[in-house]
Amino acid sequence: MKKPGEDPAEVAAQPLCTEEEFAHIMRVMAEDQAPRLFAIVEEHGERAGGRVAGYGLAYGDRVEVNSVEGGFHLISRSAERACQLFEISAGARGARTHLVWLRTGGTRPVRSRAARRSPAPRSGCPGPPPASAPGA
Length: 136
Description:
This protein has helices spanning 8-12, 19-33, 79-92, 113-117, and strands at 36-44, 49-58, 63-67, 73-76, 95-101. By secondary structure, it is of the alpha+beta class. Strands 4-3-2-1-5 form a five-stranded antiparallel beta sheet, with helices on one face. The longest helix has 15 residues, at 19-33. Residues 106-136 are annotated as: Disordered.
Protein backbone atom coordinates (compact mmCIF):
# COMPACT_ATOMS: atom_id res chain seq x y z
CA MET A 1 0.00 0.00 0.00
CA LYS A 2 1.31 3.46 -0.98
CA LYS A 3 1.78 6.20 1.55
CA PRO A 4 0.16 9.64 1.01
CA GLY A 5 2.27 11.70 -1.41
CA GLU A 6 3.81 8.68 -3.19
CA ASP A 7 1.23 8.49 -6.00
CA PRO A 8 2.48 10.72 -8.89
CA ALA A 9 -1.10 11.70 -9.79
CA GLU A 10 -1.71 12.77 -6.20
CA VAL A 11 1.52 14.77 -6.09
CA ALA A 12 0.73 16.49 -9.41
CA ALA A 13 -2.68 17.53 -8.10
CA GLN A 14 -1.21 19.46 -5.15
CA PRO A 15 -1.15 23.26 -5.60
CA LEU A 16 2.36 24.56 -6.22
CA CYS A 17 1.60 28.13 -5.18
CA THR A 18 -1.15 30.53 -4.10
CA GLU A 19 -4.02 31.48 -6.40
CA GLU A 20 -2.51 34.95 -6.91
CA GLU A 21 0.92 33.52 -7.78
CA PHE A 22 -0.64 31.03 -10.17
CA ALA A 23 -2.70 33.77 -11.86
CA HIS A 24 0.50 35.81 -12.30
CA ILE A 25 2.38 32.82 -13.77
CA MET A 26 -0.47 32.11 -16.21
CA ARG A 27 -0.67 35.79 -17.25
CA VAL A 28 3.09 35.93 -17.93
CA MET A 29 2.90 32.67 -19.90
CA ALA A 30 -0.05 33.93 -21.97
CA GLU A 31 1.68 37.27 -22.66
CA ASP A 32 4.91 35.52 -23.70
CA GLN A 33 3.06 33.21 -26.10
CA ALA A 34 0.56 35.76 -27.44
CA PRO A 35 0.48 36.25 -31.21
CA ARG A 36 1.55 39.63 -32.63
CA LEU A 37 -1.23 41.89 -33.87
CA PHE A 38 -0.96 43.62 -37.24
CA ALA A 39 -3.11 45.49 -39.72
CA ILE A 40 -3.15 45.56 -43.49
CA VAL A 41 -4.00 49.06 -44.65
CA GLU A 42 -4.82 50.37 -48.11
CA GLU A 43 -3.35 53.62 -49.43
CA HIS A 44 -5.53 55.39 -51.98
CA GLY A 45 -3.73 57.65 -54.43
CA GLU A 46 -0.47 59.23 -53.32
CA ARG A 47 -1.23 59.49 -49.58
CA ALA A 48 -4.64 60.92 -50.52
CA GLY A 49 -6.52 58.56 -48.22
CA GLY A 50 -6.54 55.14 -46.74
CA ARG A 51 -8.38 52.57 -44.72
CA VAL A 52 -7.75 49.48 -42.67
CA ALA A 53 -8.53 46.48 -44.87
CA GLY A 54 -7.91 43.73 -42.31
CA TYR A 55 -6.46 42.74 -38.98
CA GLY A 56 -4.27 39.74 -38.35
CA LEU A 57 -2.58 37.64 -35.72
CA ALA A 58 0.93 36.33 -36.32
CA TYR A 59 1.63 33.00 -34.66
CA GLY A 60 4.98 31.21 -34.76
CA ASP A 61 4.07 29.09 -37.78
CA ARG A 62 1.36 31.09 -39.60
CA VAL A 63 -0.72 34.26 -39.72
CA GLU A 64 -4.49 34.59 -39.80
CA VAL A 65 -6.18 37.69 -41.20
CA ASN A 66 -9.81 38.80 -41.25
CA SER A 67 -11.08 41.59 -43.47
CA VAL A 68 -12.80 44.43 -41.62
CA GLU A 69 -15.93 43.98 -43.75
CA GLY A 70 -16.15 40.34 -42.72
CA GLY A 71 -16.59 37.42 -45.04
CA PHE A 72 -12.89 37.04 -45.86
CA HIS A 73 -10.50 35.01 -43.73
CA LEU A 74 -6.96 34.27 -44.84
CA ILE A 75 -4.32 31.91 -43.45
CA SER A 76 -0.81 32.48 -44.79
CA ARG A 77 2.78 31.63 -43.92
CA SER A 78 3.71 35.27 -43.14
CA ALA A 79 2.19 38.71 -42.63
CA GLU A 80 4.16 39.99 -45.61
CA ARG A 81 2.64 37.30 -47.85
CA ALA A 82 -0.86 38.08 -46.54
CA CYS A 83 -0.26 41.75 -47.39
CA GLN A 84 0.73 40.74 -50.93
CA LEU A 85 -2.49 38.73 -51.27
CA PHE A 86 -4.58 41.70 -50.11
CA GLU A 87 -2.68 43.78 -52.71
CA ILE A 88 -4.29 41.75 -55.50
CA SER A 89 -7.74 43.03 -54.57
CA ALA A 90 -6.56 46.52 -53.62
CA GLY A 91 -4.51 46.90 -56.80
CA ALA A 92 -7.59 46.25 -58.91
CA ARG A 93 -9.09 49.36 -57.26
CA GLY A 94 -5.93 51.42 -57.69
CA ALA A 95 -4.84 51.13 -54.06
CA ARG A 96 -1.61 49.89 -52.50
CA THR A 97 -1.35 47.85 -49.31
CA HIS A 98 0.94 48.32 -46.35
CA LEU A 99 1.71 46.10 -43.37
CA VAL A 100 1.46 47.84 -39.99
CA TRP A 101 2.62 46.05 -36.83
CA LEU A 102 0.56 47.10 -33.80
CA ARG A 103 1.80 47.32 -30.22
CA THR A 104 -1.52 46.47 -28.58
CA GLY A 105 -5.20 46.13 -29.28
CA GLY A 106 -7.40 49.13 -29.96
CA THR A 107 -8.60 51.46 -27.24
CA ARG A 108 -11.86 52.59 -28.86
CA PRO A 109 -15.00 50.54 -28.23
CA VAL A 110 -16.28 48.54 -31.18
CA ARG A 111 -19.50 49.94 -32.64
CA SER A 112 -22.07 47.99 -34.61
CA ARG A 113 -22.50 48.66 -38.33
CA ALA A 114 -25.81 50.41 -37.65
CA ALA A 115 -24.15 52.67 -35.09
CA ARG A 116 -21.39 53.52 -37.57
CA ARG A 117 -23.98 54.68 -40.11
CA SER A 118 -25.83 56.82 -37.55
CA PRO A 119 -24.43 60.22 -36.62
CA ALA A 120 -23.03 60.45 -33.12
CA PRO A 121 -25.35 62.08 -30.58
CA ARG A 122 -24.63 65.75 -29.95
CA SER A 123 -24.36 65.91 -26.20
CA GLY A 124 -21.62 68.51 -26.05
CA CYS A 125 -19.42 66.03 -24.21
CA PRO A 126 -16.09 65.45 -25.92
CA GLY A 127 -15.85 61.91 -24.56
CA PRO A 128 -12.92 60.36 -22.76
CA PRO A 129 -9.44 61.68 -23.49
CA PRO A 130 -7.36 59.55 -25.85
CA ALA A 131 -5.31 56.86 -24.15
CA SER A 132 -1.62 57.63 -24.14
CA ALA A 133 0.70 55.09 -25.68
CA PRO A 134 2.76 52.96 -23.30
CA GLY A 135 6.07 54.62 -22.60
CA ALA A 136 4.91 57.93 -24.10
